[in-house]
Structure formats: structure tokens, C-alpha cells
Specification:
The complex is a heterodimer of chains A (507) and B (152). Chain A is an all-alpha fold and 507 residues long. In chain A, 78% of the residues lie in helices and 2% in strands. Chain A has a domain of 214 residues. Chain A starts with a helix and ends with a helix. Chain B is mostly helical and 152 residues long. The chains are: A mainly alpha (507), B mainly alpha (152). At the A-B interface, α3 of A face α4 of B.
Chain lengths: 507, 152
């Protein structure tokens, strides 16, 4: 990615970490001033392109030069706010940037269909604030700053989920549920950060980590650990704390679901990794215990319970939402192995899951655009009426199951290898059973799409329709990525390993 | 005879004072308690008081809802604009980081750049907070029920 860095004047590349958050924040204010939705979308599109560009620049700089530390306002850490980027958050940052860009391309037809014209510019404004918040959580090196950005992204997310009310009033209660639970999660997180501040007198995450290593742990830091795990676990939809997610995904506008499913829980999961590995150290007794008895255990339960719940859903997006909870379980299991191999398998699954869920939700968005599809029985015969979108949906769906020739297989392969290295046969069994359940719920949708015949309307079959190019292109890119990165697995695997090594030191 | 005559007269006297006090809090924020957030709330309160006494329509004639929307965005632009400006104003020949106010003024002895920087930032905060407070008030006060009461 050096060629991207070379495109910039030398001064600007240095500021790339700050610009990644500043650009969407400024653009959100500009979008709010736009008179109509189309201009709002143009602002969002320009912003998302710049963000994707700068996030790739940051990734390139980190991979070539190592750790970046940017001092906001010229104040030295640990006194001032530091933006601290290593391979782990550079990868998540680039993921959010690139997937965000693809989602914004998809937004123009989808938002035009679902949100009333007068509110579209404000909708894009709220979306850009959410994007800035997610990028901010990812890039900052300051524990309190994580909380602030988490709230920035959450509050704007509640808004954009509630905008689904134009199509289905249940979006309002879904958003309200998420608001209550999300606020509780954020409160738990900030209480934990407060305890850490009490114990160490610092808010800089790297500094807290160092002080904790020197002075050891006590009840206060243990309480802080518990509060932070619960707070971030709620945001990441860790199993028993996931109840806000299915309705939020099912009733939000399609664009919002595609964006959130591939970014929001991923960023919270990143923050969890950061706290477990950089602030608390995995060698500390209670952290090590939590790996096996909290993360691995909860991960396995999530894989089983959420997958079986997914099988019995009737709403297509709710089904995929339960599947998302199960996929978070896979990541938690990888994290819970506590080894560099396990963590890198978890991060690889994080990247892959963003790619496949992005494609799946975009395809559902394309179906909804032309046929108003919400239920699984509405999918009947779409293989004949919308073949291109149905094809993309099929590829991503097979990837979700973990069929060979797709990236879903790659990440499950690495997860199983890591589990075998650790000697966790039960985890391997859980992975395989959960994949079979994934096959069951994906097969339900695929059989409706390809086997059933389209519903007749007064004896006439609906004509075949093409989704607009603005939908086909980003969806096609994501579906193609599902195949491409199976054959060129070393790209994503290399990134995931670099990310895991950045926090584990390679063991 | 209007029953609220005393309220109207007194509030007419009070509203300009409230605005002046708001600006005092704003500009004294560097040296004492106060700053953009508090000042923004106080200035919004002056309009909200006007709306309570004279009715929401009168208040919206004086400060239209669209002004609140534009003000909210402008404040953010002022705040972030200061940060972006520091990126492009090299200080002592060197580029400084985002929001490093020293770049705003060359006088280092008195840290004048820091003074200007915080004043501008607070101005942005004032604009946004006052506008958002007002927008929230308008949204609540101007709300019409989705389903009219008779139709329940």
C-alpha cells in the first residue's frame, strides 16, 4: 500500500490518523446543511472515499514503519490524547473504511426507497457521525476517549436504526431497546475505566497497561475488568448480552443493517481485544481464567444457541442477525484460546464475517428494493426473477456455512487448527455442529430462492428485474471477495496474523 | 386586559440581560467557571423563555427552526475548522498536530495562540449548544400527536 502513501504530500500522510476521524465529523455537519438527499449522499460518498483512502494509508504506514503515535493538539501522552495505531487497529480501521465505502455506494437507491426525502440529508449526517465514532473507537489510544467515541457512534446508531420506522414502526421499539441496553453497556464500560483511573491515575491505555504490570492487580482492577468486559461485551453482542441485536438488524433500513452488521460489533470486539491484551495482560491469573471460562465458554454457547434460534426464524434479516450472534461466538472462541494462533483465527473470522454479512444484507436490500422482501417465504423464486442478486446471496450464504472455495472455509479451518493446537476437541466438535446448523438455516433461504417458483400475480409471473448498478457493484465486489480471498488467502491471513502478533508478541 | 401582563413586561426586561450574561459566561470562561456549553444553554434559555411567555409561533418567527439546524452544523464546522486550520498553519516553520493552537499566533511568550484557539473553539461550542437546545425545545413543543386524541 506504499503507492497510496506516495500519492500524498509528505506532511499530510503524517496527519492521516487525525484526518480519518476529522473528515467524517466535519462532513456530518456539512451533510446536515444539504437541502436534499442526493446532495447529502454526495457528501457522504466523498467522505467515505476519503476515509477509505486515509485508512488504507494508515494501514500502509503501520505495515511498513510500525506503530504510529499521533499527539492530539501537541500534548505529550499520557497527559494528552494520543491516537495510537498498531497492526491490530490498522486492520480494523481499514476494514471499517473500505466496507463503509461499499455500503455508501449501496445507500443511494436503498435510502432513496426507504427514508422520506426531507429527512435523507439528516440521515446521512447521522450516518457520518456513526462512522466517525466507530473509526474513533478504533484509532484512539485513550481509554476515556474510547468511551466518548463509543457513545458518539451509539447515539447516532440509535437514530439511524429508528429511521426504519418509515417502513415498519417496530423500528422505534427496536431502537429504544438498543438505546436502553447500549446506555447500560456504556455505563458499565465507563465505570470500569473510572476504576482503572482510580487504580493507576492514567487514562492512556498503553500507560495503564504498563503501570498495571509494575504495581500488580487488586480488587479495584478486578472490578474494572469485570465492568469493562460486560460493557464492551454488550456492544459486541456477546452471547447473553445480544438481545438488542436481532430486532435492531431486522427493522433498521437495509443500508443501516448492512453497515452495522459488518462494522459496529467488529469495532466493539476490537476494543475488547485491546483491553484484554494491551491494558490487562493475558498472563494475569484472572484474565487467563476469563479466557477459558468466559470467552471460550460463552462463544461455544453462542454458536449453539444462536444458530439453533436462527433456524426457526421467519424473518430473513432476523435469521441473519441471529447468525451474526453465532459468528461473534466464533470470534470469542478464537479469542478465548488465548494463543496467537487462536486470536489471529478470530480476527480473520472478524474480517471474513464483515465481507460475507455485508454481501448478504446488501442482497436482501436489493430484494427489498424491487419486491419488498422481508420474510423467508417472500424469497420464493428470486433465483429466476433477480438472478444476479440471488447469485451474490448464494455465494455469501455458502461462505457463511463454510463451504470450501469460500473465505468462510478459510477462517473455520484456521479456527479448527488453532483449537487442535490447544487440544480443545470439544471446540472442534462445537465448530462442526454449529456449521451444520448454519447449513440448515442457509439452506432454508437458498431452497426458497432456487427451488420454489415465483408467486403468481393474477396468473402472470413477475418479470425478471435487475437491481440498480449502485447495488450490484458493491454487492458484486463483496461476493467476489468471498471467492477471491479463498484463493489468495495469504493476504487476509497475513493481516490477521500481523494484527494478532501486534498484541500477543507472537506467542 | 392580558392576564400575563406582568410576566410579559418582566420577561421583556430579563431576556436581553440573560443574553448579555450568556456572553459574559462565554468570554469569562478562560478565567473562571463557564465556557461555551454553559453560555450556549443560557442563550438558548432566553429564546425558550420568550417562547413560554409569548407562544411558540412568536418564538419561531424570531428564531426560525431552520436557523437552529444551520447553527448546530456551523458550530461543529467552527470547532473542526480551527483544528484543520492548525494543520495548514505551520508554526515556526514546522507543521503541528491537529488542534495545536500555538500555530494560530506567533507570540509564544504570552501563548497568544492558545488564547485565540480556546476562544474560537468555545465559540463553536456556544453556537452548537445554543442551537441544539433550541432545536430540542422546538421538537418537543411543536410535536403533534400521530393519532389525534379523538381517534383513540
Amino acid at each position: 500500500m506504499d503507492f497510496l502513501v506516495n500519492l500524498l504530500p509528505s506532511g499530510l500522510a503524517h496527519h492521516a490518523p487525525a484526518l480519518v476521524i476529522v473528515i467524517p465529523l466535519v462532513a456530518a455537519a456539512v451533510a446536515a446543511l444539504m437541502p436534499n438527499g442526493r446532495l447529502g449522499w454526495i457528501v457522504a460518498m466523498v467522505t467515505a472515499s476519503l476515509v477509505a483512502f486515509f485508512s488504507l494509508v494508515v494501514l500502509g504506514l503501520v505495515l511498513s514503519d510500525g506503530l504510529i503515535s499521533y499527539h492530539m493538539g501537541g500534548w505529550e501522552p499520557p497527559y494528552g490524547i494520543e491516537l495510537r495505531v498498531d497492526a491490530l487497529n490498522a486492520v480494523v480501521l481499514a476494514l471499517v473504511g473500505v466496507v463503509g465505502l461499499l455500503c455508501v455506494i449501496f445507500a443511494l437507491p436503498s435510502v432513496g426507497d426507504e427514508i422520506e426525502e426531507g429527512k435523507q440529508a439528516l440521515f446521512y449526517s447521522a450516518f457520518l457521525v456513526a462512522l466517525a465514532g466507530l473509526l474513533g473507537v478504533t484509532i484512539t489510544g485513550d481509554a476515556f476517549n474510547v468511551f466518548v467515541f463509543l457513545e458518539i457512534s451509539s447515539i447516532s446508531t440509535y437514530t439511524i436504526i429508528a429511521m426504519g420506522a418509515g417502513k415498519d414502526r417496530r423500528a422505534l421499539t427496536a431502537s429504544y431497546n438498543y438505546l436502553i441496553l447500549g446506555t447500560i453497556g456504556a455505563t458499565f464500560f465507563v465505570i470500569g475505566v473510572g476504576f482503572l483511573y482510580m487504580a493507576t491515575g492514567s487514562l492512556n491505555m498503553a500507560d495503564i497497561g504498563q503501570i498495571l504490570q509494575e504495581q500488580g492487580h487488586n480488587r479495584v482492577t478486578q472490578a474494572a475488568f469485570a465492568f469493562i468486559v460486560v460493557g464492551l461485551g454488550l456492544k459486541a453482542a456477546m452471547f447473553p448480552l445480544h438481545v438488542w441485536l436481532p430486532n435492531a438488524y431486522a427493522f433498521a433500513p437495509n443500508f443501516v443493517t448492512a453497515f452495522l452488521a459488518s462494522t459496529a460489533t467488529k469495532v466493539a470486539f476490537y476494543a475488547l481485544i485491546r483491553f484484554l491484551f494491551s491494558v490487562f495482560h493475558p498472563d494475569v491469573a484472572f484474565v487467563e481464567l476469563s479466557f477459558t471460562w468466559v470467552f471460550a465458554a460463552v462463544g461455544v454457547i453462542a454458536m449453539m444457541v444462536a444458530s439453533s434460534q436462527a433456524i426457526f426464524q421467519t424473518d430473513a434479516r432476523r435469521l441473519l442477525a441471529y447468525s451474526s450472534v453465532a459468528q461473534v461466538g466464533y470470534m470469542m472462541l478464537g479469542l478465548g484460546m488465548g494463543t496467537a494462533a487462536g486470536l489471529s483465527a478470530g480476527i480473520l473470522h472478524l474480517i471474513n464475517h464483515a465481507i460475507m454479512k455485508g454481501a448478504l444484507f446488501m442482497a436482501l436490500g436489493a430484494f427489498a428494493l424491487h419486491f419488498g422482501v422481508r420474510q423467508i417465504r417472500d424469497l420464493n423464486g428470486l433465483g429466476r426473477t433477480m438472478p444476479a442478486s440471488a447469485g451474490a446471496f448464494t455465494i455469501a450464504g455458502l461462505s457463511l456455512v463454510g463451504v470450501p472455495l469460500t473465505i468462510g472455509f478459510t477462517s473455520k479451518w484456521y479456527l479448527i487448527t488453532a483449537a487442535l493446537e490447544r487440544g480443545w476437541w470439544w471446540a472442534v466438535a462445537a465448530l462442526i455442529i454449529s456449521s451444520l446448523m448454519a447449513l440448515a438455516y442457509v439452506a432454508r433461504m437458498l431452497s426458497a430462492i432456487w427451488m420454489e417458483s415465483p408467486p403468481e400475480h393474477h396468473g402472470a409471473k413477475p418479470a425478471a428485474r435487475h437491481a440498480p448498478y449502485m447495488v450490484l457493484v458493491p454487492m458484486g465486489i463483496l461476493a467476489f471477495a468471498n471467492l477471491y480471498f479463498f484463493f489468495h488467502a495469504d493476504v487476509l491471513v497475513g493481516l490477521a496474523e500481523a494484527a494478532a502478533n501486534a498484541v500477543t508478541g507472537g506467542h | 386586559m392580558n392576564p400575563h401582563l406582568i410576566l410579559r413586561v418582566v420577561s421583556k426586561l430579563l431576556i436581553p440581560m440573560i443574553v448579555v450574561f450568556g456572553f459574559y459566561v462565554q468570554f469569562h470562561g478562560d478565567y473562571g467557571p463557564g465556557g461555551g456549553f454553559q453560555a450556549g444553554v443560557i442563550i438558548a434559555v432566553s429564546v425558550i423563555l420568550y417562547a413560554l411567555i409569548f407562544g411558540i409561533e412568536e418564538a419561531q418567527k424570531a428564531v426560525p427552526p431552520n436557523v437552529a439546524r444551520i447553527g448546530a452544523a456551523t458550530g461543529v464546522l467552527i470547532y473542526a475548522g480551527v483544528g484543520v486550520a492548525t494543520l495548514f498553519l505551520p508554526f515556526a516553520g514546522e507543521a503541528v498536530n491537529f488542534l495545536d493552537y500555538d500555530a494560530l499566533h506567533p507570540d509564544q511568550g504570552h501563548h497568544s495562540g492558545q488564547h485565540y484557539g480556546i476562544l474560537l473553539i468555545e465559540l463553536g461550542v456556544l453556537t452548537t449548544v445554543a442551537s441544539v437546545m433550541l432545536a430540542i425545545f422546538y421538537a418537543f413543543a411543536g410535536r403533534v400527536p400521530d393519532i389525534p386524541d379523538e381517534e383513540w
